[in-house]
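Running log. JK asked me to keep both predictions on one page so they can be read side by side. First protein, sequence followed by its tokens:
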Amino acid sequence: MSSTIFFQKYTDPNNNDNILCDKQVLIDFIHSNTQTKSKRGRPKKPPNTFVMWKNDNMDTLKSYFKDYDTIKDWSKQSKIDYYNFKEIGIPKKDGKPKLVELITIKAGIIWNTVEQHVKNKYELKRDNAIKNFNTPRIKINIKDSWIGPYHNKEISKKVKKDGKIIPNYKEHTLNEIIDIADNMGNLCGGITETSNGKYSLRFGELVDKQNVCSWIKKDYVYKPTKSKRGRPKKPVQYESDSDNESLLEQEKMIVTSVTYNGLEYYHNESTNYIYEPISGDIVGIYDNGNIQLY
């Protein structure tokens, strides 16, 4: 709960605008705000190998476009000529491009030609960074009907509503998510805090995963659905944040920088996936010129 919402909810205009609430409500509010501040200051998840290489070679990448500020004519044909001269394909939209977009396109093209031993070096660099990555968490008082935290454990399956996975929660506190989970009954067995600090409603079994944390309803028992007799079905693939971990490196890297709601993302033109530039996680899809985040 934000400070604004808290004050609106518990300020009593009939009592000199004093704050009136239960002691436990105030304790939970203080804990939740302390948790939010700690998240802002905690280490960021190490970027993927492409971003590491791109950052290390930024000066070289910028040098390809040292004439950028001198270009005054960004009409359609002039822009096509510029892109051809820089060997970065065909522009997807009209108007003056952002320098970061040109650099990202060029970086993706060069990355495809980088020798494997160089990529191996960055894979090792990222592996070491992941090992040193630690996400501190403050212990929060939660309901007696819940148990946890389980560090480096995630609950295996994401809760769905109307056939669609419920998006992760970012602005809510843990206790607010617990209330949401309780209202869902047996559909939700617990909560997993992902490596980027978001809360995900889950059900299933606890499985190992680094840099996450989970809480479970004390009375929750997971009962896997039994398969019907007859021809065996193919295993169901459940979505997991780890599934996206290395896709950015595995797929053909032809990317452009796109901006959505003031934030920069990467668009892989061969798959139309939208990536978060730091972690490399898939966060949406590019559909007919529109960005749709999950």
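And the second, directly underneath as requested:
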Amino acid sequence: MSVHIHAARLQDKVAIITGATSGIGEATARVFAAHGAKLVIAGRSQERGEALVQELKTQYGDRFVFHAVNVIHEQEVSALIDAAVTHFGKLDCLFNNAGAGERSSVESVTEAEFDRVMRLLVGSVVFGMKHAARVMKASGGGSIINNASIAAHRIHQGGYLYSGAKAAVSHLTRLAGAELGPFNIRVNAISPGAIATPIFWGGSTRADKLSHDENAGKMAKLQGNLANATPIPRSGIADDIAYAALFLASDESSYINCHDLVVDGGRIAMFNERLSQQQRPQQ
């Protein structure tokens, strides 16, 4: 999807996007950049992050930096927030986007898996909000956006732990928005549906090991399959989430707080929760 500019909706706003070196995060970085934001592009891949920064600088000017971070560690999250203030003097928006999928079940879950998933999907959001709040309070407010999922609302949309973690993100969003609203800090979530990104075939780590043609083939097949899974007959793409984040980051959403915005083409409305015959125990 191409970026269409009618007005710079984030002009002079400072934003952090975690998980910004691929998928939804990368798409959001491009959209925010096109709309005037100053960006801290955060992720684990120094190579991909620096490449994206250089691309955006060439196109839009010198208002982008990369910050390497592993969001499972509070100390690194705190340093990321401080980096935005150091580079740009303030923080207007944090998009807690970093994450990964998993496929556990009630009986297969392990202690190590629990720790990993909860630290990544819940801990990163908890500590992102904590440290963003301390600097946003000082500057008079801001917008925090958390990436949840329709797995937070419906069964069979993700793994056991993934779905539980995303449900926690959705509710923590409401709790934080209620607590921080008096300080003009809005906290909202986005719940994507089945968005076509490399997460479906192993994420950016796996995608980096495949050729361009191999990734393109997987993406085309995935988009074809997902087009049959929603009332709108096309696959969701990363830009669909990026533009939702743009709205929530902008002043256009200044009276929206504690909200979980579902962006799924209607999938959540049509999903059949009944167990399939294959999933039912044999009598």
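Observation for JK regarding the second prediction: The longest helix spans residues 111-139.
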